[in-house]
Amino acid sequence: xxxxxxxxxxxxxxxxxxxxxxxxxxxxxxxxxxxxxxxxxxxxxxxxxxxxxxxxxxxxxxxxxxxxxxxxxxxxxxxxxxxxxxxxxxxxxxxxxxxxxxxxxxxxxxxxxxxxxxxxxxxxxxxxxxxxxxxxxxxxxxxxxxxxxxxxxxxxxxxxxxxxxxxxxxxxxxxxxxxxxxxxxxx
Length: 187
Description:
alpha+beta; four-stranded antiparallel beta sheet; three-stranded antiparallel beta sheet; 7 strands; about 35% strand
């Protein structure tokens, strides 16, 4: 990935995934991302807690990346009632464990993954330490872009169009030309 090292930050975060029994015969189990562990070490589906048939796993450790060009999106995530991170899970085969693919602080990037319909995008509460880190990143790298109104092309109101035919194209008969335009062509 291309990035400007001066406007880039990263942090390892662990993804907590919960498996619980399904409620229909078509879904024997339900997988859901339920939490974030900031600064977590490597893990590969390490069981953390078991309560009957409900099991919490430290599924993977992904890198949360912040880019200087996306500070507006990060600010939107912090302005929510509950500041959130977004975790993308991908299920390759039915009833298999999902693969954590991405963790992001950008609601816009999460929306892109949600639009494809194949991925599960979970909204997870952002831990206080990550909130402080994202807020510092925004304060350092955010540059407000001034609004510039686009100038429209001026419509020429003095141009006269008589009918739908193009007067630049000489034709013996033009079914789209108005009678006034046909008279002007002949005369």
